[in-house]
Structures are given as structure tokens and as C-alpha cells.
């Protein structure tokens, strides 16, 4: 009996977790697996973990070498997101191979990956699979002799005070981060051909990547603003990835530290790290920038029902509703750049949708004088937002012979020519037969 009760309790607990997990109606991650290189990271990075817990996340902190680690059981994923704070680990424990982590992302789940100067080849390969390539030299770190923390770094100038942030309210929030971001770690590059990866924090123009303990024999491979410090990736399935070359950036020490940029009299009592990692984690965990489209409808002008087909030159109305998730509820999304295509091999009609400020987008247009199988397509891709890719198929046919108008105004001259010819022939016949 005791065993049966334990099984029932486990099933109930599993159902409760499933109800609180990521769903289409509640797209914010809830269950997060955090892999630590050392249990001491739980205390040295406690402010970051506390911020996540205060926002309702269920954190499961485990050693990255735990032999019982697993992301799924019986085909069901146990977590909605994964955080890897284990830069030097050569292999994850349990069933967590690099393929398992990538499958986790390919299934629509989110990932935060932090590195540092001890980053292993395993972590480098994992980041490369996500579209971000770390510096090849294992001894290199990002150095900047003009933008470092003057108060704490008097030696190799590798404690950067970075301020080159992406200008995106959806990724970093509406409030601008004023204080510099303290950063110590390695740099990375993002291929310009990779449209899915975005550099959120970059080094200054005076930075370079090199071994601080060695004399430069040749110019460094990575220099200036081409060095990525923190990047994000939004996959085609809308899974989100955060890759940072600095694990210390998330630490309590860096969050609470005052900052003074070298050569500047400006001093900040606290770095911008807390605000930066909080806002960035909100985006990664879908608290912001997650869109959904519902109620896609089309019908003839003056009607309400959706037809099974249209005739050429019919006038129709198209509408849909778009909402954005705020972390707690859905709010109407407002934008002036949402478009619909009436598409067959190529767009025959491209219309910008008007919105009423309450989430509803609509427009009207005339069906082109071409028959075939068309699609209504909405392909909405904007920086920081999840992709909307909607389509609905509808055939367009020509009018039947009995659906045309009996008399067409444009043909009146031809009608007149025909009847005048008949009248002329009648008059000519009478004149020819009865007059000599």
C-alpha cells in the first residue's frame, strides 16, 4: 500500500509540474535546470538565482558531473530551460551529451551558456553549434587598455567596463542601462551570414583578444567591435539561447561592484550587471517579445462567412489578431509593419495591415484576375520578437459562363456597330429588291 501511495503522489506531482510548465497559453519558462561546475557558484551567483526565483522560476541546481542528470524521461522533457555555468567541464554527467542539449533546443527549449578563460573544448563546440565561435586560443582573454575598471584592474586591463549595448527595447527592456557592464572573459565572433545570432554586448574599438601573459608576436585575430562579449540566438523554432564569454558577469561580486572607467571622472556606485542579466534573462525565458496570432479570417466584402473559394476580381476582407506575452498575460501587440501576401508562386497582392490598437489587424483588397490555388501568408520577422509564420490556402476560379453580366458597358460600341450593320443591310436589301 505504501508503494502504491508513493506512485500516486509522484503522478500527482508530475501533473502539477506539467500544469505550471511552458504552454502556448503560458509561454514563460518555469522549470529550469542549472548545471554548476562547483556548488560554490550557488552562493557566489546567488543574486542572479534569487532574481529568477523571485520571478517564479523553479530552479533545480545540480553539479554538471552528476551521473543522474537527465533532460527527459519517457519521452517527456522535465525542464523548460537549461542554464550551464560549467565552463571547464569536459563532459556533462548522466545522459547529457552535446547532442542531447542540442535536441533540447531543437525541441523549442531555451539555453543559457556561460564561459570564461578556462572554457573547455566541449563548451566551445556546443557554442559553435549554436552559431557562436569563441576565440581559438585557449589562453586569450579580451583586453582593453582604454575601457577597463580603473578602480579594480591595475594589471592586465582584462576587467572591462563595457557599454556597447544593442539598441533594442524588446531585448534589454524599455529602460536604458546607464552604468557600464563589468566583464572578464573571452571573446567570440558571429558570422555575418548568420541571421539568427545577435551580438547584444560588444567590446569597444580599442579592445583586442590575446594572452595577457605573452608578448604579441603578430596582430591579434580579434580586435575592436568585431569582438562579441554576449550574444543571443533565436532559432527558427523560436527557442532562445544566451551565450556569454564571462561567467563572472553573473556573479554577486560584479553585480555589487562600483565602476570607474579609466580616464573618466564619472563613477558609478554599482555596475549595470544586475539590470543587464535580469533584462536579458527575461527575454531568453520569453517574458518579453513572444507573439501569437489568432483568429485569422477572410471573407467577401459584405459577408461574414468564410467561403470555400473566391472568383477572380472578388473583393475580400482579411483580418487576424496579434498579442504579445508580458510574462503574466497577453497584451495587444501594436505595430505598423505587419503585412499579408496573397501568394501563388510569388506575391500577387502585398498589403500592410491596419490595426485598431486592440490587437486586431485587417485590410481589404481585390482578388487578382488570375485563377489557381493561392495562399494568405503572414511572415513577420522583427528583431527580438518570435517569428509569426502563418498561411491559409484558398482556390481562386474564373467566373462561369452564366455568372458574367449580360451586357457590358465597355462593349456598347460593339453592340452599336453590330446593330447598325444589321439595320444597314436591311435598308440595302429593300432598296435593292424594290427599286431599279
Key features?
436 residues, alpha+beta, eight-stranded mixed sheet, five-stranded antiparallel sheet, 9 helices, 32% strand, elongated
Mean pLDDT: 89
Note the overall shape. Answer: elongated
Number of helices: 9
Largest sheet composition: 8 strands, mixed
Percent of residues in helices comes to 10-25%
User: Can you list the strand order of the major beta sheet?
Assistant: 2-1-5-6-16-15-13-10
Q: Roughly how many Å is the radius of gyration?
A: 32 Å
Catalogue the unreliable spans: 4-21
Number of E-state strands: 28
- Beginning-to-end CA distance, first to last residue: 126 Å
As a percent range, the share of strand residues is: 25-35%
Structural class: alpha+beta
Summarize the structure.
With 436 residues, this protein is α+β, with helices and mostly antiparallel strands. 22% of the residues lie in helices and 32% in strands. The longest helix is centred in the last third of the chain and has 23 residues, at 412-434.
What features would you describe in this structure?
By secondary structure, the chain is α+β, with helices and mostly antiparallel strands. The protein contains nine helices and 28 strands. It has helices at residues 2-20, 41-44, 46-54, 98-106, 121-129, 169-172, 252-256, 273-284, 412-434, and strands at residues 31-36, 58-63, 72-73, 76-77, 81-85, 110-114, 132-134, 141-144, 160-162, 164-165, 181-183, 188-190, 197-202, 207-210, 228-234, 240-244, 259-260, 267-268, 290-300, 310-311, 315-325, 330-332, 339-344, 346-352, 354-355, 360-366, 372-380, 388-397. It has an eight-stranded mixed β-sheet with strand order 2-1-5-6-16-15-13-10, sandwiched between helices. Strand 3 (72-73) and strand 4 form a beta hairpin. The longest helix is centred in the C-terminal third of the chain and has 23 residues, at 412-434. The protein is elongated and about 125 Å long. The chain starts with a helix and ends with a helix. The model is unreliable at 4-21 (pLDDT under 50).
